[in-house]
Design brief:
The protein is α+β, with helices and mostly antiparallel strands and about 375 residues long. The protein is built from 12 helices and 17 strands. The relative contact order is 0.17. Bound molecules: flavin mononucleotide. Flavin mononucleotide binds next to helix 11.
Length: about 375
């Protein structure tokens, strides 16, 4: 769970169910938060914020203690908003209205739903600033998965019409992750330059641009998720996790989109066996399934893609209507990003990590990390002996 307004004092994230004894590295959490703030095409807000995870509970002496974990992320921008968005009533003349809803944002639907006369409160919560809180707890999920040898990273497949047209191996995604400067988080330098040109074009035109990111989870054992109930299927859970991110409008598992128009023989991943390779010795010729069959992880890399629509706040705004007068006006403009594909990828890593950690805990259980690892190792042994 998360709480907090985009221009409020802070965001808060809450995670419960993490076994006791997991080492928490503050530096790792802060680097995850830094990664979410990167990418060519971000707006002025990201220059103000320097996110850091202030752990309030559930961690003592550097390890989890089995109690609920809560993390606070200060909004540095709050100093500029204390009078416009106070907790108490404040001075109405200083409040900042959002007078005309932006097509594509939550403004109109939210104002109608909550019966607000304008959209300030709507965008304060609908804004993707919220995703920073998910990245903080997602970092804890990643540390937990790391103990099981599972790692989750992302890279950018396309920005606007510019795309990388080859599969990117894990090693190259890991190299991207180690960089201290992020342009568009694409593994191919030439494609990344074409992506930058797309952003430049959008900047020049007062427009915005979307794109596609891919999240890859490596070393996931077979057996996470189940077909036993529809809402326990791993593909369904991952799709919901990614779709819950602001501006994600489609999710693809493996090569799900091209698979719809290809013959079965070109889609399904043929099975071989080499003793002592991977978890149980079964290997695949390719990974079009994205590591999931029947809602269950199959031991291959999990590959999920998120398709982002272009950001809806435009410097050259689209047509809208004034909330108060109902007269036609241009949609509101508030300082905004132009391209967020790399950042959305980082937030999606958090969502994938939280989902996989939950599935792993369902399967292996454990109140302490030692207990979880004992159960996990027992399962790996079962796979080896299969
Ligand atoms: C990392 C990230 C940053 C975003 N930044 C902005 C932004 O600066 N301006 C904007 O209008 N939308 C931004 N969005 C998208 C909106 O939050 C989103 O479109 C809006 O909440 C409506 O939700 P929906 O697009 O999921 O329907 C961002 C999305 C992500 C993932």
């Amino acid at each position: 769970m998360t709480a907090g307004e985009s221009h409020g004092e802070a965001l808060v994230a809450f995670l419960s169910g993490v076994p006791a004894g997991l080492k928490i590295e503050q530096v790792f959490l802060d680097r995850e938060l830094w990664r979410r703030q990167q990418g060519y095409g971000r707006g002025g807000r990201m220059k103000i914020e320097r996110d850091t995870a202030h752990i309030l509970s559930g961690v003592r002496h550097g390890i989890t203690i089995g109690s609920p974990i809560s993390i606070l992320l200060e909004n540095k921008d709050w100093t500029n908003w204390q009078e416009s968005l106070p907790v108490e009533e404040g001075d109405a003349k200083k409040h900042k209205r959002v007078a005309s809803p932006r097509p594509g944002h939550a403004d109109l639907a939210g104002a109608l739903k909550y019966n607000f006369p304008e959209a300030r409160y709507v965008l304060e919560r609908a804004s993707a600033r919220e995703s920073a809180a998910r990245v903080a707890i997602g970092g804890i999920a990643k540390l937990f998965l790391g103990e099981l040898g599972i790692h989750v990273l992302s890279h950018v497949i396309s920005v606007g019409a510019a795309a990388i047209d080859r599969e990117v191996p894990w090693q190259q995604i890991a190299e991207l992750h180690d960089r201290d400067e992020v342009l568009l988080n694409c593994a191919d330098a030439e494609a990344e330059q074409r992506m930058k040109t797309e952003v430049d074009q959008a900047l020049k035109n007062g427009d915005s641009v979307g794109g596609v990111f891919e999240v890859v989870a490596q070393c996931v054992p077979p057996g996470l998720g189940t077909y036993a109930q529809w809402d326990e299927r791993l593909d369904a859970r991952l799709a919901a996790a990614l779709m819950s991110l602001q501006a994600v409008k489609a999710v693809e598992i493996g090569s799900g989109i091209t698979a719809a128009s290809a013959p079965g023989s070109a889609v399904h991943d043929e099975i071989s066996y080499t003793k002592s390779v991977s978890f149980a010795g079964f290997t695949r010729s390719r990974n079009n399934a994205g590591g999931i069959e029947g809602g269950v992880s199959n031991g291959q890399e999990i590959r999920v893609r998120g398709y982002l629509k272009p950001i809806s706040t435009l410097r050259r705004p689209l047509q809208s209507v004034d909330f108060a007068t109902r007269e036609p006006v241009k949609a509101a403009y508030e300082r905004s990003d132009v391209c967020v594909v790399p950042a959305a990828g980082v937030a999606a890593e958090a969502m994938v990590a939280l989902t996989l950690a939950d599935c792993a805990l369902q399967k292996f259980g454990g109140d302490s990390l030692g207990e979880t690892l004992r159960n996990f190792k027992g399962y790996l042994e079962q796979l080896r002996n299969y």
